[in-house]
Design goal:
Layout lengths: L2 H13 L21 H4 L4 H4 L16 H11 L6 H30 L5 H30 L2 H27 L3 H4 L4 E3 L6 E3 L4 H8 L2 H17 L2 H38 L35 H52 L1
Antiparallel strand pairs: 1-2
InterPro entries: Luc7-rel (IPR004882)
GO molecular function, one term: mRNA binding
Family: Belongs to the Luc7 family.
């Protein structure tokens, strides 16, 4: 991405699709079903895990920073409940990852040599200490890059203590099994990102794993899912109530439009001789008689829906016939003028030939 494209993306993210009066390149609004709701909530796995070992490729739905800016501005005025859609998406994704983790554990159990309960407990102790060292080392490096030197040095001192404990645990594990078996790499599956970790991995390799984009991305996704699940029952209840209120509002608006339409029709059709306001109308002396209110044979209800539609259809056909006749007359006139010009040209050529002879 060029510097110009980066600046354009930043402006889109800040100002939305209405920047400089332009429309967004996808020609859709943030509320369109084709727009990724997880992306609007900044938690789409396709975006978070891009360029990693578990890159999911391009998201099948639309990702646009300008649409996210539009959504964030609109969310301040009205609750769209997109967090529910994002939570359901993340639940499905994490459930699939957890299934892959369990399958990887089963494959390791089938391929690796089975250890006794005592040896397995010692190996697990080594794994736990190694993972803790890797996490603290990655955190210390991050704090050092951010300028928190004192906190980073404090973590490094804790890492030194953990390394001593790990050395003692490795010695106990080595003494509990034959040398030939100890040299074999004992693997375990990371509970967060499903990656394989070895019991003989050094601190640098573990720090790269726990501070890597894949592991941190899964941590971000799982933490976001946990936050969204906190009040999910209340949010779903609020969404149902909001949808019911919206349906009731639309129903009231529809009834008001129909009532206004009926009133307009009654007003336009009520002036006839036998209508609602006529000589023998509903308010007259014979209001309930044969020629009473606006619902009589010649009453003031005006044309009904079907009659009005038929009238409009007839008018449309009449206009089409008039246009067709006008075009036909125009074609005949142009054809007549063309024929007359051809006859004059032919007569001039004939006269010229006669003079030459």
């Amino acid at each position: 991405m060029t510097a110009h494209d980066q600046m354009r993306a930043m402006l889109d993210q800040l100002m939305g699709t209405g920047r400089n009066g332009e429309n967004n390149k996808f020609q859709v609004k943030y509320s369109d079903p084709k727009v990724c709701k997880s992306f609007l909530m900044a938690c789409c796995p396709h975006e978070i895990l891009s360029s990693t070992r578990m890159d999911l490729g391009e998201c099948p739905q639309i990702h646009d920073l300008a649409l996210r800016a539009d959504f964030e501005a609109a969310q301040k005025k009205k609750d769209h409940f997109y967090d529910i859609d994002a939570m359901e998406h993340l639940q499905s994704f994490i459930a699939d990852c957890d299934r892959r983790t369990e399958q990887a554990k089963l494959r390791l159990a089938e391929t690796q040599e089975e250890l006794s309960a005592e040896v397995a407990a010692k190996a697990n102790s080594v794994h736990v200490l190694a993972e803790e060292i890797g996490k603290k080392l990655a955190k210390a490096e991050q704090l050092g890059e951010e300028g928190f030197v004192d906190e980073s040095m404090k973590l490094m001192s804790e890492i030194d203590d953990l390394r001593k404990k790990k050395t003692d645990a490795e010695q106990e594990y080595r003494n509990s099994m034959p040398a030939s078996s100890y040299q074999q790499q004992k693997l375990r599956v990371c509970e967060v990102c499903s990656a394989y970790l070895g019991i003989h991995d050094n601190d640098r390799r573990l720090a790269d794993h726990f501070g890597g984009k894949l592991h941190l991305g899964f941590i971000k996704i799982r933490e976001k899912l946990t936050d969204l699940e906190v009040n999910i029952d209340e949010r779903r209840k609020e969404k149902r109530e909001s949808m019911m209120d919206r349906d009731r509002h639309r129903e009231r608006e529809r009834e008001e439009r129909e009532r206004d339409y009926r009133c307009d029709n009654r007003g336009r059709g009520g002036g006839g001789h036998n209508g609602g306001g006529g000589h023998n109308g509903g308010n007259g002396y014979n209001g309930g008689g044969h020629n009473g209110g606006g619902g009589g044979h010649n009453g003031g209800g005006g044309l009904g829906y079907r009659d009005r539609d038929r009238e409009r259809e007839r008018e449309r056909r009449d206009r089409d016939r008039r246009r067709s006749r006008s075009r036909s007359r125009g074609k005949r006139a142009r054809r007549s003028r063309s024929n007359s010009r051809n006859r004059r040209s032919h007569s001039r050529r004939s006269g010229s030939n006669d003079r030459k002879r």
